[in-house]
Design a protein that fits this description.
There is one protein chain. 92% of the residues lie in helices and 0% in strands. By secondary structure, the chain is mainly α. The protein is rod-shaped and about 55 Å long.
């Protein structure tokens, strides 16, 4: 098993999870204001 490749894959996974969570949070705020306003 290539440990360096494993670390790189895990880093990309963490970045995608972070930005995915931020995107969903922003989307929820936008939808909240579209529905309530």
């Amino acid at each position: 098993m290539d440990y360096r490749m494993h670390e790189g894959t895990y880093e990309r996974f963490l970045v995608m999870v972070k930005w995915g969570t931020i995107s969903v949070a922003i989307l929820m705020v936008i939808l909240y204001f579209l529905i309530i306003a």
